[in-house]
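Hi D.,

Good news: the full-assembly prediction came through. Inputs first.
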Amino acid sequence: LFSELDDIPLDPHYALKEDFSADTSPSKVILGSGIYRDKDGKPWVLPTVVEAEEIVKASEDSGRYDYLPIPGYAPFYTAARDLLFGALSSPEENFVSVQTISGTGANSLGAHFLSNALKPSAVWLSNPSWVNHANIWKSVGVAVRSYPYWNPERKALDFEDMIQTLTLETTPGDVIVLHGCAHNPTGLDPTKDQWKMIANVCERRELFPFFDCAYTQELTRDNSQGFASGNLDEDAWALRHFAFRGSMELAVAQSFSKNMGLYGERVGALHLLTGSPDAAGKVKGHILRLQRGLISQPPKRGATIAATILKDTTLFQKWLADLCEMSSRIKCMRQALYDELISLGTPGNWDHILTQIGMFSYTGLSPEQVSSMRNDGHVYILSSGRISVSGLNNANVKHVARAIDKACRK
Ligand code: PMP
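Then the structure:
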């Protein structure tokens, strides 16, 4: 029965991990997945999460393993919605929010719903985009098209081509997936003015915006006040701009994997902003029926931890400080890699390493250069040339820079 099936290659992230594990070199380095690592290359449990775990534990009773309701843990998904939409959360009756199996589940549930409800002729993904976007949308039977995003020559946003493609090639009712901030894999975001122009096109062409919010930008610590003053509102600026215009309904997939380090707990939410309470009621019915069919109920533990942090002012401030710690280390590592490449005189321009934001840097290295880094330097990165900057630390950054340098001189 199954012998006629196509052979499907392993997802590039997992293939990379397998190859890395099989490498016996003591100097091997992997800069693959977007998982935060501390200065010693170890996973980091956020201190705020540890505190929240204690609070959750102390309040647990014999119902701790009960099922959640189908939409999930209400204190979590309402606080998650408020984090994204801020004061715009009213009129509340126009929103539908449900807890999902992290950001992947939110993208997937959203794709199921939008493919059924809108029957789009295509979904538009940035070129490049998170590899799973195309996988998810193909699995719900929607044609996947891409709009220009990364210009390899300029190592910059291909904005004019993006707008042109969206204007000339889309069909009303199509879905457009937009990365809320810290675009994966390029680390390049549109400016606010560019976001406004993208919103204009979506409005004019009647495209349905589906934001994917899986990352945060760099927060900066305000030492005078002793806590993070970096602005999570900035992360949500683009989607709030779309929502604020009042002319478009939209969807948002939200993940707490990276920003709370809750990767394996699978904490996320799907939000739909609809045009009226009546529409919201209908959307809710459809979403809950899909959720029931796909997972019945989402898991409890991670959502209670996240809700504890989001709803307690003191813990919330501590969480911002944790975010600061992660983002400042990543920023330092960007600088360290840049400095090493400059001091080696590595051919090419490396300014983009400093200007890109979030966890990733899209280096512009070719697949041949990537494989030479692996063969000669035991440095493992995706063939797209994307590196996860959080995998860098003081002990490996020189080695990685030398591997890049050697590959660029071949
Ligand atoms: N969207 C994007 C753009 C991502 O990069 C990721 C994680 N790599 C996700 C969604 C989903 O992550 P998770 O399922 O862990 O929340």
